[in-house]
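Figure 6 in text form: structure in, sequence out.
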């Protein structure tokens, strides 16, 4: 409120003078000796407040919230001081105190997680010291809701935001250091399917969740019940259904939010049903790997060949089990037992056919995504009924001869045993290693010239064995695998623009989108002015194109004293000192060094003599100056007075003599190269009569 607004008008009745303000309480009542505590002052008559003081020291950031409330930031201080408010009506009572404490400011050491969606809502754990009595947690300038767990831990809910914000904690001891928290533009995950979408009420069903944005999942829920899970990729998660009833919605939560729900139905468990066993025969010595197909196989507790338990078995899904046949004779019934009971039996016949033998697998490694073609060599491979990589059947296989099979590896991980099953049984296993696809995370530098040839460091994971590096569609000139997490590559030539970088290895490829910029070399078309003094210090304007990322401006081999990039087509530069004559001016960017433009260092003019050297005080005559470097003369001075002149040649000019007081005066010539040393011209008084 302006002071004039409190004055009565001529037509309004006069009122009593306003009462001075009164301070009734402050909150908090203490703060750090270093100041910085945000204090709320409560009382009356605060309208128009001009100062809030802590003792004799004025507080900062004073905001009059209302006639009864002010917020103010405490200044540094010690001991106990009186808090007063001053308004045009006077200064308040001095009964309310504020105590300075030696409480140290809190210290932040870690945030977990330190990223979250722009919509906020992420629960962040703040670790550090001195959190007791915390009064605020801020993400940048935005306050967050929080709970002080202990003196070393706070749980805070991130507010909405963008970019990177500094997280701070404020206590009576002051405000902590800041730690960065990054708001990401991560979208909420999207689920498209759950397979299978049914399972027993007892839980335990292994389901595959498909969708997008699943990387970084923090929770999978069946209804409100959390499930154990494994993130296979950004489009797939495997989860184990918890116990439940009815139909529930399956959701996935990531830092980007919680997905839509996909239905999963709990069903009453019935006895399993077997429809086939493949192969249906095997060696009497046992060891044949068989696949049992049917329904209700989830939670199988036993697989038996006759009365003999299988050597081992794996529940692949509710409809598939893989098992290793024990030793036996004749034809037996294979059964599966689950909590719902024991299945019907399907026949399996033991034969005396020799068990196949594997001697090699080539190649012995391939992508974890599958699809690698491998050749299996051995004996007894005729009539092969199955090729398995671990417990997973090959995508396809072809029996070439009794000693060779070609197969396509399925998806997998780690090192597995490759086996072949024939009516004689299952072969020995040979190792096959799944290689994880490489991952690119960073490129440094992320830009370079269109001519290529610069070295770029690529950072990521699983880079060992890299076979190719490409900038867009163009292969790198060369590359070196430094470690499993680093590659150095020489960039190829390319047109200007942004490209993605792709690394390819035995496990597949990884692309970092729009991660490298090819930058045109700068081009200079003009420098204005074209010349200047040897001492430098004058400013020139460089005109051209592709100048925006300039890192250096040089006059010959000498760097400009300073330069400013005005736009992509203009730079202003302060000329350094130089030697007389022309030099080549260039601009350097990450795209290379420009063509040169010529700038000339000029020597200042030199006056060797004046003719005549003296004249009348009334002026009106001319004087001839003899010297050198007159051709670019811009001004001639008699003392501080500029005069007209006529340039005769580079060594002569004729100047007009102005009127002036008697006595000597300095004559100088100014040109682009500077100002000449003076010569003396003397004005003589006219003789008296």
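Output sequence:
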């Amino acid at each position: 409120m302006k002071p004039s607004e409190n004055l009565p008008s001529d037509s309004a009745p006069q009122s009593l003078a306003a009462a001075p303000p009164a301070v009734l309480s402050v909150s908090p009542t203490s703060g750090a000796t270093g100041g910085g505590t945000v204090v709320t002052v409560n009382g009356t008559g605060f309208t128009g407040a001009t100062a809030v003081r802590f003792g004799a020291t004025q507080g900062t950031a004073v905001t009059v919230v209302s006639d009864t409330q002010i917020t103010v930031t405490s200044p540094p201080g010690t001991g106990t001081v009186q808090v007063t408010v001053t308004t045009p009506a006077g200064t308040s009572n001095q009964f309310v105190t504020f105590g300075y404490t030696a409480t140290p400011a809190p210290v932040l050491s870690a945030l977990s997680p330190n990223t979250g969606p722009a919509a906020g809502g992420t629960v962040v754990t703040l670790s550090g010291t001195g959190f007791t009595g915390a009064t605020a947690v801020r993400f940048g300038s935005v306050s967050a809701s929080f709970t002080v767990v202990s003196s070393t831990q706070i749980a805070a809910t991130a507010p909405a935001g963008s970019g990177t914000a500094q997280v701070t904690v404020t206590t009576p001891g002051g405000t902590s250091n800041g730690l960065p928290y990054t708001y990401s533009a991560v979208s909420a995950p999207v689920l498209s399917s759950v397979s299978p979408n049914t399972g027993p009420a007892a839980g335990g069903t292994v389901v595959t969740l498909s969708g997008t944005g699943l990387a970084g999942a923090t929770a999978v829920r069946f209804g409100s019940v959390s499930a154990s899970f494994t993130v296979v990729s950004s489009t797939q998660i495997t989860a184990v259904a918890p116990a439940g009833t009815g139909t529930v919605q399956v959701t996935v939560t990531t830092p980007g939010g919680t997905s839509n729900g996909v239905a999963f139905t709990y069903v009453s468990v019935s006895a399993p049903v077997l429809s086939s066993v493949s192969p249906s025969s095997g060696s009497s010595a046992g060891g044949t790997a068989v696949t049992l197909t049917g329904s209700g196989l989830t939670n199988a507790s036993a697989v038996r060949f006759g009365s003999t338990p299988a050597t081992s078995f794996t529940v692949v899904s509710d409809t598939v089990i893989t098992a290793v046949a024990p030793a036996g004779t004749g034809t037996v019934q294979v059964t599966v037992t689950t909590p719902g009971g024991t299945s019907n039996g399907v026949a399996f016949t033991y034969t005396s056919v020799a068990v196949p033998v594997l001697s090699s697998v080539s190649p012995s490694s391939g992508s974890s995504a599958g699809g690698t073609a491998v050749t299996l060599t051995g004996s007894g491979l005729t009539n092969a009924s199955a090729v398995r990589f671990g417990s997973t059947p090959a995508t396809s296989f072809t029996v070439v001869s009794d000693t060779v099979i070609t197969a396509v590896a399925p998806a997998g991980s780690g090192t597995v045993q490759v086996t072949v099953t024939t009516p004689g049984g299952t072969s020995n296993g040979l190792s096959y290693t799944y290689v994880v696809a490489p991952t690119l995370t960073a490129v440094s530098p992320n830009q370079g010239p269109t001519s290529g040839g610069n070295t770029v460091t690529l950072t990521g994971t699983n880079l060992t064995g890299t076979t190719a590096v490409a900038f867009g569609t163009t292969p790198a000139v060369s590359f070196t695998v430094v470690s499993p997490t680093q590659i150095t590559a020489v960039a190829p030539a390319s047109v200007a623009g942004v490209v993605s970088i792709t690394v390819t290895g035995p496990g597949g490829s990884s692309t970092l989108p729009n991660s490298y910029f090819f930058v045109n070399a700068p081009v200079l078309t003009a420098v204005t002015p074209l010349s200047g003094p040897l001492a430098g210090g004058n400013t020139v304007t460089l005109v051209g194109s592709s100048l925006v990322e300039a890192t250096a401006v040089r006059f010959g081999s000498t760097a400009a004293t300073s330069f400013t990039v005005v736009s992509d087509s203009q730079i202003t530069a302060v000329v350094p000192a130089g030697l007389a004559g022309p030099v080549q001016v260039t601009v350097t960017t990450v795209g290379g060094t420009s063509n040169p433009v010529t700038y000339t260092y000029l020597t200042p003019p030199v006056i060797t003599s004046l003719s005549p050297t003296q004249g009348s005080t009334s002026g009106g005559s001319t004087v001839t100056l003899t010297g050198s470097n007159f051709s670019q003369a811009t001004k001639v001075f008699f003392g501080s007075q500029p005069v007209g002149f006529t340039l005769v040649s580079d060594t002569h000019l004729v100047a007009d003599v102005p009127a002036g007081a008697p006595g000597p005066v300095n004559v100088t010539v100014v040109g682009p190269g500077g100002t000449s040393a003076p010569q003396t011209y003397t004005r003589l008084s006219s003789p008296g009569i």
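Caption detail: The longest strand covers residues 508-519.
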